[in-house]
Please model this.
Amino acid sequence: MQDLINLPRFNTSQLWALPWKLSLAFIAALLLQAQPAQAQRVRLPIFDAVVVNSYPHDPDAFTQGLLFRDGVLYESTGMNGRSSIRKVALESGKVLQKADIPQQYFGEGMTAWKDELFSLTWQSQTGFVWDLKTFKLKRQFSYSGEGWGLTHDDKHLVLSDGTATLRFFDPATMKEVKRLPVTALGRPVEQLNELEWVEGQIYANVWQSDLIVRIDPASGQVHSVIDLSGLLKRSGAARGSEDVLNGIAYDAAKKRLFVTGKLWPKLFEIRLLPRPLTQ
Model:
């Protein structure tokens, strides 16, 4: 999958140009207009985003993980020497609290479990557990492979590692308990990145795309796709290979969905609107 790294950003008018063999391109192909007789058979439901509100976001934050809890955002950022965990005011984007991750680590996804924050690193096979209130580092843990995104259900932490498989861990021991292959119409969906648990579903950014896939945590099947084309331009971020969509947070109390990207000056509250099937 190394040939995905330098793929240009694509939009729905350019999807036909991507090679079918790539799993990213497979998801993209789901957005193509099928022949009327085949449309119901080969297409997944697509949702577009209506921006409800936009908020300031630190343009130097290389966003890796995002969550909303108790009225504030928590965010993890990446890059060696710049990685951190943060508590952020939604309305102003002001960083209220911050802890730096040691500079030898490239910070990745994060989630809150009870009164602790769990954060990953990219290739160091090392994770950190922080006190939710004080941001004091409490302990470290190890895992195999890479760390990309992190979320949780009511029993397990759920980790993505850039492949088409999600891995479930016991939060008490950080021992892996199961794996969940993720597929869309029978094909593996790779490059799963930042994760968020939303109303019994797993939302996942697909790295270097404008897409979020919605995954059934029981079967691993993608049942719909969110197309966020246009948000990068609207964010005011400089177009480049790093400023990709990444960061999903959900306010369960008020049913608000937030998204942002790496190095984006804005964070968006969005509402999902089903895209009509082409007749």
